[in-house]
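Suppose a colleague, Dr. K., hands you the sequence of a protein chain of 138 amino acids and asks what its three-dimensional shape might be. Before reaching for any lab equipment, you can write down a predicted structure in token form. Begin with the sequence itself:
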Amino acid sequence: MNLSNCPQCGKVFVNNSYNICPACIREIEDHYRKCVEFLRKNRDSTLYELSEGTGVSVRLITRFIREGRIGAKDAPNLMLPCESCGELIKDGPICDNCRSKLSKDVRHLHEDERRRADRQNHFGFGSTYMKDRDKFGK
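The predicted structure, expressed as tokens, is then:
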């Protein structure tokens, strides 16, 4: 039997797929139900209005949205902060600007690796170069 301490409340519990104790799981589910009920009545709420109306932290609501438990169809005005720059976005972890910057950086990294490999092949690393072959009788 694998036992762990709950990272939220510190209680000892038998390991499960959530990695938190059953009491904390129930508490999170209660918060989720509060959010869903509030959104049924106030569909046009923003993230902060939802947090104020339910008493659930913005961080936990953000987690529900990122997990796909609360979606844009449920609440079209819920917007999340980009994980990189903080700009408000409707879905995904990062905004379009950060996504394009990231893909540009990855493309540059691949180009740098290609240049490094070309330079290594051009200079013949791994083979021996002798300046004065006559000294060695060749």
